[in-house]
Amino acid sequence: MLIGELADVAGLTSQAVRFYERKGLLPDAERRANGYRTYDESTLARLRFIGAAQVAGLTLSEIHNIIDLRDAGTVPCTHVIGLIDTKIADVAARIKHLAALQAELEALREHSRLLDPADCQGDDICHILPSTNPATRSAATGALRDR
Questions:
Q1: Confidence of residue 38 (pLDDT cuts 50, 70, 90)
Q2: Does pLDDT of 147 surpass 90?
Q3: How many CA atoms does the CB half-sphere of 84 hold within 13 Å?
Q4: What is the pLDDT of residues 101-117, one digit of tens each?
Q5: If you count Cβ atoms within 10 Å of the first and of the last residue's Cβ in the chain, which end, N or C, has fewer?
Q6: DSSP 23
Q7: What's the pTM?
Q8: Which residues face 31 on adjacent strands?
Q9: Could you tell me the CA-to-CA distances from 129 to 39, 69, 107, 108, 112 in Å, in that order?
Q10: Under DSSP, is residue 1 helix (H, G, I), strand (E, B) or coil?
Q11: At 37, is the secondary structure helix, strand, or coil?
Q12: Is the pLDDT reported for residue 71 higher than 70?
């Protein structure tokens, strides 16, 4: 396949294929006498793997490591499971952080219903969001939730 054909079948652009080549995720393409790159089914399989790995949240660096392991003759499944476990922990931590942020925003919204916009004075831009340091503000909104 030529690069355009490969890109079409993989659902990518030719530039994306070249990018993955430059990053070392794809082997160097064979060249025809006219200089055109040619690719086989193994390159298509690798591009599909890269896409699936990205959907799973793996970085290009992590994907590169997996490919390197495979190219060295090692089955990378144990390594991939470790990466997936790490991603699960990261997602859980982000969910916890987002839940806390949601609670803080809901507390601010509830507090805002008690405020009169005419009461904003002096250097206040908006008294819904107090101009205190973040640690104090978080404690303050926590106190608001406790009311």
A1: very high
A2: no
A3: 10
A4: 999 999 999 999 998 88
A5: C
A6: T
A7: 0.73
A8: 37
A9: 57, 51, 11, 8, 9
A10: coil
A11: strand
A12: yes
